[in-house]
């Protein structure tokens, strides 16, 4: 992706935007590790954090919140986040034992097979394919949200925002916590709500549709059920801009412009349920971010053509972007690590068409659910390599000393 329009040192109007994608968000942690290392090498770690504004969606909301909770020491926050992702086990995120999978996933698939007429008995109505109750416990143990008010008051953190989608009203909501009062914004089908960020907000934001159950949230006394924030998210960069960001680091979890083509005249096999589900999740998690980045780049280009005096009278301003996306297919990496999933989960996914002997597209669904150390560490390695390979561009964006920050892309 192109570098920023203007060179400027890190400041209070710099944001990080982390997209959703389940286990694929391990890639973001690798990017953060590399940024932390470059920052230290360049002698720029005197400021508590390079990202006073943290914005996230789904699993990215959890990573963004971890950075916000450690805004007084960015490098330590990244180390703690890395420790969690390096040692992840599926059972920390959702029930992976035989009984837990049978209670949720097997019932869901059985009803899908036998017909939804059986759901006239309320007791048999499935809530989701998997039960993510363990995730709530993990977040309570690892994310000290009680630190946020003091970090905001001291100015070490400017704002934190996480997004969720309301099944009840159909709206896309951004929940944000900031120091001085910031008037909530509203656009078509999406609006912002100033609130204290709770673990329930993060559970709601990361509840992948169909895979995990909706979460009930209260908004100023009104209750509703919410799911993954990537749903109906038409402008992922907007919350950061509304919160005052003029420079944004964006970390996605899907390759840009990735298209697989068959040889001429060859017929593709009929898509499995897993392929359809993986394609739907990729549409939810990956497409909107790419479109919004292209939109921001077009606006930047248009503004650069307007004389400075006229541009100053406009409410629009250029937004410097530094964008990271994986250089390799995460579906293909997931295919190589399918064997790491607990047997009950492999069996459940196998019933949808996920197979170690299938194509990379058949593993797309698993790529969001593979919370196992072999896979997450591989994604973290990739994130580090992709970032260090662009160290000169990174240093230019932040105004760091490029000569001091030289680090080999494949260094540990």
Given the structure, what is the number of helices?
Answer: 15
Class derived from helix and strand content: alpha/beta
Percent in strands: 5-15%
- Which regions contain 5 or more consecutive residues with pLDDT less than 50? 1-10
Explain how this protein is built.
Helix content is 40%, strand content 13%. The chain has helices at 26-41, 59-69, 74-86, 98-114, 133-142, 148-154, 199-205, 238-242, 273-304, 308-312, 330-336, 343-350, 364-367, 373-388, 391-398; strands spanning 14-18, 53-57, 159-166, 172-178, 186-187, 190-194, 215-219, 222-228, 247-251, 320-324. Strands 1, 2, 3, 4, 5, 6, 7, 8, 9 and 10 form a 10-stranded mixed β-sheet that branches. The longest helix is centred in the C-terminal third of the chain and has 32 residues, at 273-304. The model is unreliable at 1-10 (pLDDT under 50).
Topology, element by element:
Layout: E1 14-18, H1 26-41, E2 53-57, H2 59-69, H3 74-86, H4 98-114, H5 133-142, H6 148-154, E3 159-166, E4 172-178, E5 186-187, E6 190-194, H7 199-205, E7 215-219, E8 222-228, H8 238-242, E9 247-251, H9 273-304, H10 308-312, E10 320-324, H11 330-336, H12 343-350, H13 364-367, H14 373-388, H15 391-398
Parallel strand pairs: 1-2, 1-9, 2-3, 4-6, 9-10
Antiparallel strand pairs: 3-4, 3-8, 5-6, 7-8
Helix pairs in contact: 1-3, 1-14, 2-3, 4-12, 5-7
């Amino acid at each position: 992706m192109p570098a920023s329009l203007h060179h400027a040192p890190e400041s209070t109007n710099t944001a990080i935007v982390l997209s959703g994608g389940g286990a694929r968000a391990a890639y973001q942690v690798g990017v953060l590790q590399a940024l932390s290392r470059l920052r230290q090498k360049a002698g720029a770690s005197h400021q508590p954090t390079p990202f006073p504004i943290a914005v996230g969606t789904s699993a990215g909301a959890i990573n963004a919140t971890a950075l916000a909770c450690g805004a007084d020491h960015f490098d330590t926050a990244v180390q703690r986040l890395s420790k969690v992702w390096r040692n992840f086990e599926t059972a920390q995120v959702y029930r992976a034992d035989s009984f837990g999978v049978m209670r949720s996933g097997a019932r869901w698939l059985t009803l899908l097979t036998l017909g939804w007429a059986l759901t006239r008995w309320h007791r048999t109505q499935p809530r989701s394919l998997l039960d993510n109750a363990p995730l709530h416990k993990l977040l309570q143990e690892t994310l000290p949200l009680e630190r946020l008010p003091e970090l905001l008051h001291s100015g070490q953190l400017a704002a934190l925002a996480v997004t969720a989608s309301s099944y009840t009203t159909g709206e896309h909501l951004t929940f944000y916590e900031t120091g001085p009062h910031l008037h909530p914004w509203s656009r078509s089908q999406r609006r912002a709500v100033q609130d204290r960020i709770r673990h329930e907000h993060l559970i709601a934001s990361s509840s992948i549709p169909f895979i995990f159950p909706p979460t009930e949230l209260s908004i100023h006394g009104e209750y509703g059920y919410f799911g993954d924030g990537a749903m109906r998210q038409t402008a992922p960069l907007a919350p950061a801009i509304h919160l005052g960001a003029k420079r944004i680091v964006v970390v996605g979890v899907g390759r840009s412009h990735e298209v697989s083509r068959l040889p001429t005249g060859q017929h593709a096999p009929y898509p499995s349920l897993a392929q359809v589900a993986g394609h739907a999740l990729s549409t939810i998690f990956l497409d909107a971010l790419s479109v919004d980045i292209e939109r921001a780049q077009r606006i930047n280009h248009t503004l650069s053509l307007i004389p400075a005096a006229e541009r100053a009278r406009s409410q629009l301003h250029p937004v410097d972007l530094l964008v990271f996306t994986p250089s390799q297919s995460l579906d293909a990496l997931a295919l190589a690590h399918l064997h790491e999933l607990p047997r009950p989960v492999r069996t459940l996914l196998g019933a949808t068409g996920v197979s170690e002997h299938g194509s990379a597209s058949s593993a797309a669904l698993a790529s969001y659910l593979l919370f196992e150390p072999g896979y997450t560490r591989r994604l973290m390695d990739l994130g580090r390599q992709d970032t260090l390979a662009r160290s000169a561009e990174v240093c230019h964006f932040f105004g760091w000393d490029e000569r001091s920050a030289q680090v080999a892309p494949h260094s540990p």
